[in-house]
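Annotators were shown the component list below and the corresponding predicted structure, then asked to write short factual statements about the assembly.
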Amino acid sequence: MRNVDNSSIVTELQNIFKRYSSEDSFVLNDVSLSVKESEVVALLGPSGSGKSTLLHITGLIDSPTEGKIIFENKTVEKLSDDEKTFLRLRKIGFVFQYHHLLQEFSALENVMLPMLITRRKKKEVQEKAEHLLKMFGLQDKINMFPSELSGGQKQRVAIARAMVNDPVLLLADEPTGNLDPETAQSVFDDMLQIMKTNNMSAIVATHNYDIAKKMHRQCSIEDGKLIEK
Ligand code: ADP
Ligand code: MG
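Structure shown to annotators:
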């Protein structure tokens, strides 16, 4: 991958601590991380180390116990709920390990949904969704339902859906974790290529070191601390 220059920082976590109320210990213990425009960061670490927790906090789905998040130069804590919702919907894309596609909607409709909420024109939304599905090699599958697609195809649709609003930051939580290694590589290569074309930044949690090596930076969470590899 090309190197990232010293361009602007998209999101910054400063001294984040996270403890779940039911637990005694800190899952995240003074974690700081900044991600630049177009930068793709791999997040490694064994199951239970806090990868999902870190992604949820970065994606404004969960709040830290302590610490500051700065998203596009704005301190998140100072934003209203509406402003945070705007960021979650328009600026951040989330991909989960399980695709969470809606079974009664076609691939195309699933990808269109997040963009329809933004009240764009239906034609524009459809063109954008078709374009993304084409980039993922799914031009022949756009009218199929999730039950008619393979695991890799479903995950490609879920990634396209996360990208349809042109997020500046994509957060992917073991997005290829349910796929066989070969399919995982090819889905991941497509995702990386499309992120690059769109100058998207990303944090990608993965167990797969071969996949992590393809990203700009590799970090892992060990005993609540973020370690740069
Ligand atoms: P990973 O994604 O690396 O597998 P998680 O972030 O899911 O790790 O979990 C980190 C730790 O936090 C685990 O010990 C897990 O049990 C705990 N944890 C995660 N979510 C919650 C929750 N909602 N309530 C209590 N503990 C949680
Ligand atoms: Mg997880």
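Statements collected:
1. The mean pLDDT is 93.
2. The chain has one domain: 9-228.
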